[in-house]
Design a protein that fits this description.
single chain, 150 residues, alpha+beta, 7-stranded antiparallel beta sheet, 5 helices, 7 strands, 37% helix
Length: 150
């Protein structure tokens, strides 16, 4: 991928809404922004932070629905095996150019562990948020490989 394509990929992450529902309320998290209601919900769960991770479309290449469904099931099982709670989330780009992706908001798992989990599922990055801080994009080593691919 050339540099301009890489920048577009980063912009696509930034322009994605990370949506989840919990306790009867919908929440939207965006990179480099805070959401006090989502942060309060997270704090109320007694965890210091959380991360959005998906198994859909590894390496930002569209995969058939059946493959994405199977990968989501494996991701949910991997999170359960590690002993963490999670709620479903949807990542939806503002421009609608990329189909929404389903994933999990993993509660309380250390960021490094979520990154490692994302790498297992071929993901370029995760998004983390915590009370009192804006959400942030956290790359996996695979994102750097995207840039080197050309």
């Amino acid at each position: 991928m050339d540099l301009s394509g890489f920048i577009r990929l980063l912009e696509a992450y930034r322009d994605t809404r990370y949506l989840f529902a919990a306790d009867g309320a919908g929440h939207e998290v965006r990179i480099d922004r805070r959401n006090p209601q989502a942060e309060a919900w997270l704090a109320g769960r007694g965890v210091a932070g959380a991360g959005f991770v998906s198994a859909d479309n590894p390496r930002s290449r569209l995969a058939p629905a059946a493959e994405n469904d199977a990968a989501r099931q494996r991701l949910a099982e991997a999170v359960r095996r590690r002993g963490f709670d999670a709620v479903p989330h949807t990542g939806a780009g503002l421009d609608g150019a990329w189909p929404p992706e389903q994933g999990l908001l993993v509660l309380g798992m250390p960021t490094a562990d979520i990154v490692a989990l994302a790498e297992e599922f071929g993901q370029n990055a995760i998004v983390c948020f915590a009370p009192g801080r804006p959400a942030r994009l956290v790359p996996t080593r695979l994102l750097v490989e995207v840039l080197k691919a050309d």
